[in-house]
Amino acid sequence: MADEKHVQKGTDDQQITLTDDQGNEELYQVLFTFDSEDYGKSYVLLYPSAAQEDEEVEIQAYSFKPDQAGDAASGDLYPIEDDDEWDMVEEVLNTFLADSDDDDATD
Asked: Which residues in the chain show pLDDT less than 50?
């Protein structure tokens, strides 16, 4: 069975604060979220909200349990530890970025 994904592009008000091992907090913007039937999980992809538009950034990816509104909350984020799961997330991200590039080319 194919892995069905529902990608929802982030909006300006979807932000999550992540805390690193040293207790430093950084605000992240939600790039998009999607669901995977194969893994039975929801995923969120984030980038630093302080990043400039043309700046290359490292995108963070987590699985999450949606709240009642279907959104990700920082307390509900889980690391992705399975290699096959990472491959699937990277494939979705690459498709999203390719579609975004196509949209930019037609603007």
From this structure: 1-9
